[in-house]
Design brief:
By secondary structure, the protein is of the alpha+beta class. Among the domains are: 21-63 and 170-255 and 391-474, no CATH class; 261-277 and 293-380, no CATH class. The chain is built from twelve helices and eight strands. Strands 1-2-3-4 form a four-stranded antiparallel sheet. Strands 5-6-7-8 form a four-stranded antiparallel sheet, covered by helices on one side. α1 (34-73) packs across α10 (386-412), α4 (158-169) packs across α5 (173-204) and α6 (220-247) packs across α9 (367-380). The longest helix is centred in the N-terminal third of the chain and has 40 residues, at 34-73.
């Protein structure tokens, strides 16, 4: 809920005390401080970060609808028209290798159901992290149905990948990702400050119904405000959810969240791929889904390894089979069904003996790991399919509308078509000592986890105090 207005459009301005110009209490006299502080923080974040949130919201809405668009745009590659008994996986892999040329085999995703194609994934020069070249094979006829780059565990096709890169970093790589972290981090702060202001108006306002539904009879700035306030309270929970889950992908805050989960024992379990008695540099926890080239393998092993996995914990159609990268590592078969119910069980198999090396079941995940999995899948729109995607798109467009309303309020409040003045500084000057300590402590604590928010909050505190001190000296 991104508000950028400086004062309520429906309440008259507070009268300043007679003994102090500008509305500041006389020395030794306290006044309201929390609501003015929230109002100034809400305005500051809305004006400075609002444009970033707007871009993230609009691109997020496009991303939410992209899976449905991909089904139409890439229907030839995704569908297999031939009916009958599918070819062995080994034969499908050989046909894909002939098409891929010198590219190195990295993984296989068998057709999850009749009428769908098999994806054979290859690592190739020129691809970025988590990208693979995918050859789409009709599992019955063996015909090559498509050849394109896919991205990540979700298997995003070029349209969704392009939207994803823009949504996460404006297509600018790691530097651009700071924009999305700024938007995701500050969105939660703006929402919480807005909810605090909404609660204050609910407690003191006479027209409470205008805070839960827009007043269609209002005009001017008041009309903008009633839409902003009523829409914002309905979108608040969803916006907080997007903020919290979005932070997990960020660079600075995301790394802090990962370290915190690891320190508390909340990390997501990973399957071990180290073979018994293996020596060297084999990674015992290589279940990361990256597009890395596998060692030379016999394609026939795909059928045999999948058959072993089917006897363990792999029981859905959506699976990925990854050959070992070296002789000291095992094969990995992982469920990749992110819809409900979640199926991400994993098993590793010794390719020489076809014995199970390790297994990880989603049912054995800790609560935090399960919540993290579900949160990410809801954020990406894969949890409940099309209904999930439509809700995400509506929520993202609602957030974009909130930003536009807030920016419009700020502009309309200024004279002669210029932006309005910010809410007055000095709220902390009226705060009791414990209030100042609490604000600084919260800012420092948040700063350790969310650097782009916490240090900004501390900077806000310092600037606020300096402005008040300077204005007070100028009036002496």
């Amino acid at each position: 809920m991104t508000a950028t207005g400086s004062r309520s459009a429906e309440a008259p301005p507070e009268r300043p005390p007679a003994d102090r110009p500008g509305g500041e209490p006389a020395p030794g006299r306290s006044g309201p401080w929390l609501t003015p502080l929230l109002r100034r923080l809400h305005w500051l974040a809305g004006v400075l970060v609002g444009p970033f949130i707007l871009v993230a919201a609009l691109s997020g809405a496009a991303y939410a609808l992209a899976p449905s668009a991909e089904q139409v745009l890439y229907s030839e590659a995704l569908t297999a028209p031939t009916e009958g008994e599918p070819l062995p996986l080994a034969e499908q892999v050989r046909l894909a290798q002939q098409e891929a040329g010198d590219a190195s085999l990295s993984a296989l995703r068998p057709a999850p159901e009749a009428g769908a194609t098999t994806r054979v994934l290859f690592a190739e020069d020129g691809l970025v992290d988590s990208e693979s070249r995918a050859i789409f094979v009709d599992p019955v006829s063996g015909a090559i149905r498509g050849d394109m780059t896919v991205y990540g565990t979700s298997g995003s096709l070029p349209l969704r990948t392009a939207i994803d890169h823009f949504h996460r970093g404006l297509g600018l790589g790691d530097v651009g990702r700071l924009y999305s972290e700024l938007a995701a981090s500050w969105l939660g702060i703006v929402v919480l400050a807005g909810v605090g202001l909404w609660i204050g108006r609910w407690r003191t306002g006479r027209r409470r119904r205008d805070l839960v539904r827009p007043d269609l009879g209002a005009t001017g700035v008041r009309r903008l405000h009633t839409w902003h306030a009523s829409l914002g309270i309905w979108l608040a929970l969803g916006a907080l959810f997007l903020s919290m889950t979005g932070i997990t992908w960020s660079q600075l805050a995301g790394a802090n969240v990962t370290e915190l989960r690891s320190a508390l024992g909340w990390s997501t379990p990973t399957v071990s791929t180290a073979l018994a008695g293996a020596e060297g540099d084999a990674d015992p926890h290589s279940d990361h889904g990256a597009a890395t080239a596998a060692a030379e393998v016999d394609p026939a092993r795909f059928d045999e390894v999948l058959a072993v996995a089917r006897t363990e914990n792999v029981n859905v159609g959506l699976v990925e089979i990854r050959p070992p990268a070296d002789a000291q590592s095992a094969w990995v078969v992982q469920e990749i069904q992110r819809s409900f119910p979640t199926e991400v069980d994993t098993v590793s198999v010794d390719g020489a003996t076809l014995e199970v090396v390790d297994r990880v079941d989603f049912a054995d995940f800790g609560l935090i790991s399960k919540l993290a999995r579900w949160g990410i899948d809801l954020h990406m729109g894969s949890m409940f399919g099309l209904p999930n995607q439509l809700v995400l798109a509506a929520l993202a467009l609602g957030i974009a509308t909130m930003v536009a309303l807030g920016m419009r309020m700020w502009w309309r409040r200024g004279p002669y078509g210029r932006p309005g003045a910010p809410p007055k500084a000095g709220a902390l000057a009226r705060a009791p000592w414990w209030g100042i300590v609490a604000v600084v402590a919260v800012g420092a604590a948040v700063g350790l986890l969310l650097p782009l928010v916490g240090w900004g909050l501390l900077g806000f505190v310092v600037i606020d105090r300096v402005l008040v001190a300077a204005r007070t000296r100028s009036r002496v």
